[in-house]
Specification:
By secondary structure, this protein is of the alpha/beta class. It has 2 domains: 125 residues, Alpha-Beta Complex (Aspartate Aminotransferase, domain 1), CATH 3.90.1150.10; 213 residues, Aspartate Aminotransferase, domain 2 (3-Layer(aba) Sandwich). Helix content is 34%, strand content 15%. The chain is built from 12 helices and 13 strands. The protein has a 7-stranded mixed sheet with strand order 2-8-7-6-5-3-4, with helices on both faces. α2 packs antiparallel against α9 and α4 packs parallel to α5. It is globular, with a radius of gyration of 20 Å.
Length: 364
């Protein structure tokens, strides 16, 4: 078989195998919403009319796009052509890559960063270069270190905000500087806002869409809104990029179900739920970080309202994920993220966050 040569020795950097295990664990691995879903969504599910279950959904997703345009009205003047609805934000990223990525094309990011997108680039034959965040600075993103690295050798600059795995955020002013520099170097910028519902709306890069043609922002309803099983995401981009996106889509949008589209539209109307979730995260994350600091664990730069963070052991030889499994805590090993090691793990706040401290107190 004439398999693409770059795939023959390609090794996965995915952490998916870490997020499932048999047994009774405090699950801090899977990047899901452990707070629940809004009452509005539960009510819609109860009353959903499935009498035409056999019918195809409206693949224009016009109602959802109209709701998204209204939702972002104070940040950007969006039209339906600026929004692409797909089966999760990862699908948007894959299709977007088809516009730019071929064998040998270079993408710039930083590390640690979301490995799912790194793999999408590598599978398509691209090269992913990452600027390492500094351990001594708690892996805090530094615009002064990153900006000079953007040059015309690269085609895409990838930013995740909030960052996965650290949960830190990048100031919108810094993101705009990145977009400007990328434009000068004929690069496009992709901002992955999978955890963007934990940002204030005015901090989203969607607010820059009307100003720059070289920008795409991807979002999902899986994290903040708790719709992981529906797999609905969307991308927001300039009309110019949208034209090419439609070409690589072959005129066929993502196959989001009718129910998924309706739930997504309804979720946007319940921002009180998002506020309650953010407040829950802040309260419980603060307790966890304080306790972990007192136990002597390392904590990377993070944002108080984002449910994920990175913790580490001072001894680089310690396999921290393995130690946590011994105490029935499931996490994602830092070994799956570039610029982290096995002595680090990513933690997603579980249903009962204090369980982490209780179990680790026994471990210590």
């Amino acid at each position: 078989m004439k398999i693409k040569k770059h795939l023959l020795d390609l090794k996965s950097e995915s952490y998916e195998k870490d997020v499932f295990a048999e047994g009774m664990f405090t699950d801090c691995a899977l990047g899901r919403n452990n707070f629940g879903v809004s009452d509005r969504l539960q009510e819609l599910l109860k009353n959903y009319d499935d009498s035409r279950f056999w019918d195809s959904p409206d693949i224009s997703y016009s109602d959802l796009k109209r709701e998204l345009c209204s939702f972002w009205i104070n940040q950007a003047e969006l039209k339906a052509e600026n929004i692409k609805v797909e089966n999760g934000s990862r699908f948007v990223q894959e299709r977007f890559n088809k516009i730019f990525i071929s064998e040998g094309v270079k993408v710039l990011g930083y590390a640690p960063q979301y490995t799912g997108y790194v793999m999408v680039v590598l599978v398509m034959g691209g090269h992913f270069t990452n600027i390492k965040l500094n351990l001594e600075e708690g892996y805090k993103f530094n615009i002064d270190h990153f900006l000079p690295e953007i040059n015309s050798d690269f085609t895409i600059v990838f930013i995740d905000n909030p960052n996965n795995p650290t949960g830190q955020i990048i100031d919108l002013r810094d993101i705009e500087e990145i977009v400007k520099q990328a434009d000068r170097k004929d690069c496009v910028v992709m901002v992955d806002e999978a955890y963007g519902d934990f940002l204030n709306k005015e901090d989203s890069a969607i607010g820059l869409i009307n100003k720059y043609n070289n920008l795409i922002v991807t979002r999902t309803f899986s994290k903040g809104y708790g719709m992981g099983k529906t797999k609905v995401g969307y991308g927001v981009m300039s009309s110019k990029l949208g034209e090419y996106y439609d070409k690589v889509s072959l005129g066929v949008p993502g196959s989001v179900s009718d129910l998924g589209a309706k739930l997504s539209r309804e979720s946007l109307k319940d921002q009180d739920f998002i506020k309650k979730y953010r407040d829950w995260v802040k309260k419980n994350k603060s307790k966890c970080l304080q306790g972990l600091n007192e136990m002597g664990y390392l904590i990377a730069e993070t944002y108080e309202y984002c449910p994920i963070f990175v913790m580490g052991h001072k001894d680089p030889e310690v396999d921290l994920r393995r130690e946590l499994i011994a105490k029935n805590i499931l996490s994602v090993s830092g070994s799956h993220f570039r610029n982290l090691g096995k002595n680090y793990v990513r933690i997603n706040l579980p249903e009962n966050p204090i369980e982490i401290l209780d179990k680790l107190a026994v471990l210590k």
